[in-house]
Amino acid sequence: MSRIPQYKPDDFKPILEIDWAQKDAAKKGLNDFFIEPLQVLKDAKTPSQPHRKTVNDFVFIRKGSIEKMVCSTLFGVEEGMMMLLPPHKIRTFIHHTPDAEGFYCHFSNEFIADGPGLKYLQDILNHADLVYDPTLVLDQEHRERIFLILQQMEALYQDNQSLDLIRLYLFTLLGEIRHFIEKLPRQDLSANETLAFRFRKLITSEIQNIHSVKEYADLLSISPNHLNKSIKKATGKTASEIINEALLMEAKALLSLPRFSVSEIAFALGIEDVSYFSRFFKKHNGMSPSDYRKEIDLS
Length: 299
Description:
This protein has about 300 residues and is of the alpha+beta class. About 45% of the residues lie in helices and about 15% in strands. Helix 3 runs antiparallel to helix 4 and helix 5 crosses helix 7 (about 225-235).
């Protein structure tokens, strides 16, 4: 079974109960690119279930605010802010204010493969990983330029204009975001913060198979004691707490798929003892896996 629910754009309906695929623009390469004003959220049911996407996505907030949980951390995105997430990040749409305005956009890596887009994108994502924050509080200059670019992209998209032209605007948009990041104060990470960055990167790729502090310490070529002390100093949490948070998010995401049994989910997460998995989930979430499924109406 797949490790975690990862939706292609034409399967987005289960996330917020918005039928993206029925929109007029869907015929124009929905799985590669899509843009729409945030007013679509008025029909959305929140909170969504934890999920991954096969595309990069971002929101730009012109008015109001939204809340998203990325992995296990809650982020608010308010007026003049952006949030950009890559495909592998677990995200949960928590809340939006009724007056939320701005833009939602997603695009695949393939859509920007020819040109400077991937380089711009990687620079932006590297910054987000380093500061452990996918949000950007834009200054007025970049805010206005980005808003104008998004308006033009959305107008071209709705008018069935060439995706090649829209791609050029997307390159410009990513370039503007990177330009803004380059003007921010340089992030000089301490040794503990650098180790925490590497540790979180490893968890993202290995949580399905590795759950112990010792195994992560071995991969980082340090002692478990050194890892624990460094992570605590950098994040305020123990290494075990961060591992457990990631494992819990994986479990929640898989439990949102009713076609898989609890035992299948435990096995997919590298836990062979289903009773242990149930105890772990109840300890960290306050209810059993089965009760959690009932709560989200997926039994």
